[in-house]
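Sanity check record (used in CI):
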Amino acid sequence: MFGVQRLRALPVCRVSKRLLSNEIKEVLSTRLPPPAGINGNQLQLAVISKNLNALNLDLFVNNLNPNEDRSSNILDLLTHIRSSRLANTCLESTNFGVVSHLLDNLSLQELVPILVDRPKYGIFLDNFTGFAVTESLHNEKEYELALPLVLKLVSLDELDSAFIQGFCVKSSIVALKKMLTKEAEPAEEVKAPAGKKQEQKIRVHFIRNHLEHDIKMDIGKSLLKISTIAGEMKDNTQLLAHVLTKRYENMDKLLSSFPSSITSDVLEICKELLTRANQTEICNKLEAIAAEKKSSKSLEELLDVFLSEKIAIEAKQLAEKQKQLFPTWQKLREEKKEMIEKEISVMERKETVEKIKNEIENKKQLLWFFEEEDKLDLEIYKKRVFYPKRWFGKKKKPRVLDEHYVPPQIRKIN
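Expected output for Mitochondrial 28s ribosomal protein s27:
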């Protein structure tokens, strides 16, 4: 068991910390110039923090010095804008700049949880940025670490990159093998401490409903959406997906006309899961077909060859497509700048009108004071407060004189 302003690129001296393709490195090092009328002072962190909006955030992340680590500042700004009403106004170029900077300045163990936590940071990957991150994970063989991220990319974002989908299958196989091996090991009994343990109660504001998270079901749903791989890899992936999602009728139909050979690792995983689910008939049918159609290679080995081929092909294709997007992003930034300027001008006009109204009201009161003297006297009279003649508060005790008290004698001194 197991038309726009010309793009400028940074100097070639910048070397990415990740083992990425040269085409991907070149595109990641490209920076969009700020729109016309934006000076350097407006790109400073202190200015942007006071007036944070989608355009300012985009200008900040896309004009950072690659040799300076500003990842903590970026994450603070993302958290702030994500918790505001401007959360849905961020530009696509913002995610590109954020991923490019974080790839260079964070470890994969730090980067992946940030990309997975979308409610907090709101970083969404497309085919290009997703390829850059997954290629880094693949080169460093961090398959188990990458699993939560690639499941989101395939099941939620439905990215159609063949490399990302193949990497999702590879991560799933590696994670399933480790999971099943760990579950097969005997659990260590935890010894109860001697004596009674004092119960400690903590007051909380609320308790969330406990949601049971089945990682195997999530893997199965994601594998069902794999569409870019074909042949023996696709058939084995579909077979494994039906077992994980407990779609045994569909699995039975697939086995009845299974066109390819069954790989050894998929066979072992499916047998283990079917045995645990008490699906003896389907398990026997699977073993019978595997005896006739057993592959000489495992699915992992097939995927390694597939991923190696797709890295070189997709790196060039995605780099070219990304370069074509830069002019479009620049136009969107110009439009966002004009829209924000209009909103600011409307707000300034409203503030000016309110200021003029207040000034007119003050002048009106000064000019009409004597004409409305009777009215003002009446308002003052209405505001008068009348106190009761009899006081119902605490009574003071009368002072009692001493019977033997002798008053001092007052005499005139010559």
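Strands lie at 8-9, 30-31. If this sentence no longer matches the regenerated tokens, the check is flagged for review.
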